[in-house]
TrEMBL record:
InterPro entries: C2_dom, C2_domain_sf, SYTL1-5_C2B. Keywords: Cell membrane, Exocytosis, Membrane, Repeat. Its main location: membrane. It comes from the Eukaryota. Residues 42-167, 182-311 form the C2 domain. This is Synaptotagmin-like protein 2. One of its GO terms (molecular function) is neurexin family protein binding. Pfam families: C2 (PF00168). It comes from Strigops habroptila. The gene is SYTL2. Signal peptide: none annotated. GO terms for biological process: exocytosis. It is found in: Cell membrane.
Amino acid sequence: GRIKKSPSSITNLSGSSGMASLSSVSGSLMSIYSADFGNVDVKGNIQLAIDYVEQLKELHIFICQCKDLAVADVKRQRSDPYVKTYLLPEKYKLGKRKTSVKKKTFNPVYNEILRYKIEKDLLKDQILNISVWHNDTFGRNSFLGEVELDLGTWDWDEKSNKQINWFPLKPRTSTMTLQLENRGEMKLALLYVPHPAGGKKTLPTGEVHIWVKECHDLPLLRGNRLNPFIKCTILPDTSRKSRQKTRTVAKTTNPIFNHTMVYDGFRPEDLKEACVELTVWDHNKLANHFLGGLRIGLGTGRSYGTTVDWMDSTSAETALWEKMMNSPNTWIEDTLPLRMLMVAKLTK
């Protein structure tokens, strides 16, 4: 179909107001991206017991405590941990169970029982996934480790199995739980135009065109309605003039946007330092809710010589950006999975 051009937002990235003047930007960005929510080094142990209570036909998971958890919020040197369980695969749709959140501690004590009502013989093809998370006020929770117990091989009559045991927390391995955290995907295309024609003369700096086509399988966070729209920012520029957004598509988890955004002022060297942040939101009268996003750039962890948390592209996101850089004047399309992001706040 025909591409609807949105008005080109002049960010003039190479000028004094844009990307090259990182000194003014980096202050605001450093404080915003203070915590890296996806990549905590897992450590520590969890103490728990599991039992099947025949009279109630319930699986009971007794969560006692954790010891020596990782620091989730590095800037504030704190973790606010809670424990979450799933029975996998989720074929009985029993959902998750959660403990309370313990504030400011790496050694939380819970002494809570999480319960599942399920016939005992159904447990033989289930895996119990127990994960520990840092609870963030803005909903961007960090994974602190997990334990998986294969209930198919579990000896329910063995006395020691009913007792409280310590288990080491492990990094995320379960593909099944990753799918449960699935946030859907975005189909998009990028185009780099090194020498755009501006009237009679050719412009000295290039443009990046971002064609947001559609999203698939967006998560329903509340109720059964979703009114999604997409915001775009080119980091490190968090000024309001760098922010563009699509219209809201009502009542769908598979919105079609077909919206193109144009950013100019790109010199070839700026492409190595910049990152396109696309975030998907559920439009709500009271507040917009973050659903997931992409960060498309080289993922080097640095921008204009400064270490930044937002230069954290996945290999698939980086591959798309590299293809765009290496194929000027050509649309490069891909469908990428949305993920949890620490979202940049706007500066004036």
